[in-house]
Amino acid sequence: MNANPYRLPGLLLIALFVLCFGLAAHLDLWFQAWQGNRSQSANPMGVLLGDSRRMFANHFFVKADAYFHSGYYPSVFDNREAFRTPHMAEDTGTVGGHNQGDELGFLGPPRDWIDAFSRQFFPSIHTHLDEGGARGKAAPSGDLGESSGVREILPWLRLSAELDPNSVQTYTVTAYWLRQRMGKVAEAEQFLREGLRENPGSYEILYELGRIFAENHNDPARACNLWELALRNWQKLESAKSDPDKFLLMQIVSHLATLEEKQGNYRQALVYMQLWKEHSPEPARIQQRIEELRQKLQPPSVGKAEPRLKAGT
Amino acid sequence: MKNILAVSGIVIKELYRRKDFYVLFILTVLLCLVMASVNIFNDKNIIRYLKEICLLLVWIASLVIAITTTARQIPAERENRTLFPLLAKPLTRSQLLLGKFLGCWLACGLALLCFYLFFGLLASSREHYWPLVNYFQAAALHWVMLGVVIALTLFGSLVFTAPSSNATICFVVVGGILLLGRHLNKVALPLPEPRRSLLYSLYYAIPHFELFDVRDLIIHNWPPIAWRVCGLASLYALAYTAVFLIAACMIFRRRALN
């Protein structure tokens, strides 16, 4: 009798298949409950890279700044003193600058003939995308000319936010360029709300969100609420630190003071100005504004509410 | 010259019969189309990131095609024992080598033509204009640089025994020069002697492939490079190509074929 040569391997295959099926059904229960299960994340970057993705986030943030300069950007081998704070972030007014040195000539004079020759083959002139970029189509005012070119930084900022959702700076910088230079207010607001979901209570995002309501939606009441919340959160998170983020505090209180002054709430405006003066590098200038405001307060203002927030609270 | 052209014709036919180019081209097209479909803040005019990705893929694909095609030319002839009948014809060893070089270079040129045509179509689909001079300069400089890479790989295929080791070393050398070549002088300057002089000598000796990488100029729409500068860069590349080819010919003439 001829034995079927495929019988034994076939049976083995079936047995292995049953074993695999059983193991998969058993392990799936454990896998779904496991804390380290990446498939629960809705973010494909998170599934692929895990927490290591945060390492790449800053790289793409800096790449956006390189795009802002149309490719003219120092490498790790060049003098980066003038590029410590990305210029596209500094221009938003939400980040304090730490740049020193000559941003126009970080390359320095050519060191040899190859160095001199090679400068013809890569961007070696300092330009900003919001001033026309490489083609230099700047508006006569020198600002906002061909500013639509700024859109080119957005993919890298979006990717940076995907990689590190806790980098607050990425949200505020992106929102600024979206609303201020591209007129995409709805997209900016949505992006900031995404940022706020990832970073609840972030005073930087609340401040930027307040700017949208003040400058774009013309809704001073909501802007004021957002900035007041930003100020409270700043005091909660930063005031105890040895090196608090004074730059943003000044931004928040200066905007609050200006808004309250415009609304006619002079007493409240005075409270914010006092706070502004305490932290400002130019207290004399703020004192002058305080004096002007006090003069407005000379005739008793009837019906004005008591200050909602006192300095230092 | 007739013999050289005949050998180069065979190499070109070999490239379009093989699947390497098609696979790399389709992969490039697919990746670019996937990236183009990403919605970034409802703005359909964002293009530079796409140009960057496409050009990066074109550079990687062209280097893979150039190095892998060239690295197997001489070893394959030897392994298949077709080298002896080839040299039995009125064909000198130098002619064979030059024919192989020309074939690989022209084949890479054809591949580059397809890649840059696709790049141009992709870029113009959103930018709505064709900076033809810029694209021509980028493609031409890229092709001239591939000439040096091909000559280097051909030289390597006579020095190293296996095509795989030759290809790996060529990838490392070319990649290393592209990434670091421009900065070697900056690294050398603060070093003490004699390391400083040694590194500076290396800086002057290596072929500076990064000179031909004008991707940043294309991505960010910088004006075209002066033609005189392009011509000088081409001369620089041709000089290095000649150096590697002469060295390869000298080795191949003395090499025992069996």
Write structural notes for this entry:
The complex is a heterodimer of chains A (313) and B (258). In chain A, 56% of the residues lie in helices and 0% in strands. By secondary structure, chain A is mostly helical. Chain A folds into 2 domains: 140 residues, no CATH class; 113 residues, Tetratricopeptide repeat domain (Serine Threonine Protein Phosphatase 5, Tetratricopeptide repeat, Alpha Horseshoe). The longest helix of chain A has 27 residues. The radius of gyration of chain A is 28 Å and the shape is flat. The relative contact order of chain A is 0.07. Chain B has 258 residues and is an all-alpha fold. Chain B is 78% helix and 0% strand. Chain B has one domain. The mean pLDDT of chain B is 89. At the A-B interface, helix 5 and helix 6 of A face helix 9, helix 11 and helix 12 of B.
Main beta sheet of chain B = none
> Mean of the pLDDT scores of chain A?
80
Q: What is the N-to-C order of secondary-structure elements of chain A (H for helix, E for strand)?
A: HHHHHHHHHHHHH
Q: Whole-number radius of gyration of chain B?
A: 20 Å
| Proportion of residues in extended strands of chain B | under 5%
Report how far the terminal alpha carbons of chain B are from each other.
27 Å
Shape of chain B: globular
Name the structural class of chain A.
mainly alpha
Order of helices and strands of chain B: HHHHHHHHHHHH
Oligomer: heterodimer
Distance between the termini of chain A: 97 Å
What is the mean predicted local confidence, pLDDT of chain B? 89
Give the strand tally of chain A.
Answer: 0
The domain count of chain B comes to 1
